[in-house]
Request: fold
Amino acid sequence: MPPDQPLVTLQREGARITARASGAAASRAPDSDPEHERGYGHLTSPLRQRGLVCTVEYGLSDYFVHASLPDGSDVIISPPQEPSSEHPPGYPESWLVTRHRSDEPAAYEVIYDSEPDGPHAQHRGDVTRLLAAVDTRLDQLGVPPRPEPKRFAHDVAADAVLHRTGFVPAVEFGGEHYHRLPSAMTDPEEQRLVVTRAFDMLRADGFDVSCDPDLLEHDMPPPWIPETSLGDRLGFLAKHIQASTHTRDMVANLSEVTAPGDGVLQRVVEILDTTAEWWEGFGEPADHRYAQRLRTIAESLDSYAIELRAIRGDLADRHAVHPRKNRVRENQVAASTPAPPRVRAALAPSPTAAQRCASPALPATAAGVRPVPPARPSSAPGR
Reply:
């Protein structure tokens, strides 16, 4: 495994099963927070990254998070206090987020309420929804945003594997990316199957993977993993286009994308239309909106496919060698082909020039002359 390849940790966090890459703040498990965070490090960390001073304090029956805002007001993020409830540290069944200021002008507002009778009750203990609501209000109050986290190629590669195995991407802890199992996937056996598949595919891709053995299906045979994904095979088209020196070669590769009927773009349009029809079968109002959105995207993509097809035709009419690509190709060929004997003789230095190069250097005592230090062998340190 490459030395900078991250460790991917598959673990249970409260009621969720998540996948996190090391190096991100999100990779730290809730129970590994410092003692004074009381299991709420996943709330205090993103708030501190926005420059807020946070503390974890004890209320009527449970701990809560207190954050001071630049305008003198305070935000309280609290689990249910009355009546108290049993829950994993930092993961209650619901949340209440309020903002208040006792000094003039006094203020009091409810930012988020997922308690049973609250406006966000459907989200219950979902921390992602909670942080999204808090971030939206902080943006409105002019609190500086947190720095954009840097994404590395190996993180994107892990994202691709987890995406294919059925995990859902999410953003938490100050913008760091992680993945989780679908919220409605509650069957333990089904969870083990998905986690095991992700574990095997990550290992096959060269990642170091940490996973609780209880989350794995040990009797499950290793999955068949293709050498290259469909996306990678399409990526070869881009490489072939980049290497093309004539429009006919470039057009041949682009045609795989733009071909009517069975081209890549037309197949994507077909997939979106089929997905819309399938999704609409659930029958709920939100499902109809999703289906309509998918059809709108498919229509836009179909119109772009027509335009790209026309552009491809214009390029085909050029039927010419690319001037820059051709020069690069000629230089590469020339560099790899031995020169004829006459040319080699013409390029060879004259005997007198060779003698001048071999003549002794001035003595080191000559004015203004420093002896040239001997060249270090290639194995010398610093070479």
Q: What stands out?
A: Confidence is low (pLDDT under 50) at residues 23-35, 342-383. The longest strand covers residues 7-13. The longest helix spans residues 285-318.
